[in-house]
Design goal:
isomerase activity; 6 helices; two-stranded antiparallel ribbon; AGE family epimerase/isomerase; 6hp_glycosidase-like_sf; mainly alpha
Length: 160
C-alpha cells in the first residue's frame, strides 16, 4: 500500500517515531492490514536503535534526520509514548522484546520521572537522569501523556 512506503521513506527518525508507532497500532485496531504492524515494528526498531540511552537508560529526546543524537535530554512524553508503543506491540505480536522493553521503560519512569510523594511525572531530565525542569508539566498537558500511556497499556494487556 502506498501509505506504508510513504511513512517509511518520509518520516524522520526523531521524537515522533515512537508516537507514530503507537498511532499505527491504534489504526491496526480498525484496519487490520499487514503493513501496519510491519511499519510500526520498523519505526519502533529504528527509534530504539538510535534513541535508547544504553548508558543511563531512557530515550533521548531528539535525533537528526541522519539519526544522530542532537538532544540527550529525556522528556516525559517521549518515555510515555514508548511505554504505550511497547505495550501495544507486545499485545499484538506476542514478542517478548516488547514486553521486556515495556517493563524496562516503566521501571525507568518509576525511578526517575514519577513523583511518588506528590504524584505526577517530572517533565525533563538530563542525560544522567537529573531533573532540569521545575514544573512537572504545563497546565494544558498535565499528565496527559503518562495517563494515556497507562490507559493504552491496560487496554492492550487486558484483551483476551
Amino acid at each position: 500500500m502506498w501509505i506504508s512506503h510513504f511513512i517509511i521513506k518520509h518520516l524522520k527518525i526523531d521524537e515522533f517515531t515512537l508516537q507514530s508507532c503507537k498511532l499505527l497500532m491504534w489504526l491496526d485496531r480498525h484496519l487490520s492490514e499487514p503493513w501496519i504492524v510491519e511499519t510500526a515494528e520498523e519505526l519502533y526498531g529504528k527509534a530504539w536503535e538510535k534513541g535508547a540511552d544504553e548508558t543511563f537508560g531512557g530515550i533521548f529526546f531528539a535525533l537528526s534526520p541522519q539519526g544522530e543524537v542532537i538532544d540527550t535530554d529525556k522528556n516525559y512524553w517521549v518515555i510515555s509514548e514508548a511505554i504505550a508503543a511497547s505495550a501495544l506491540l507486545a499485545a499484538k505480536t506476542g514478542k517478548s522484546i516488547y514486553s521486556e522493553r515495556y517493563n524496562q521503560l516503566f521501571s525507568y519512569a518509576s525511578n526517575y520521572l514519577i513523583d511518588h510523594q506528590y504524584g505526577g511525572w517530572y517533565k525533563l531530565l538530563n542525560r544522567k537522569n537529573e531533573r532540569v525542569s521545575g514544573p512537572k508539566s504545563s497546565p494544558p498537558k498535565t499528565d496527559y501523556h503518562p495517563v494515556a500511556a497507562c490507559y493504552q497499556a491496560l487496554q492492550a494487556f487486558s484483551k483476551p
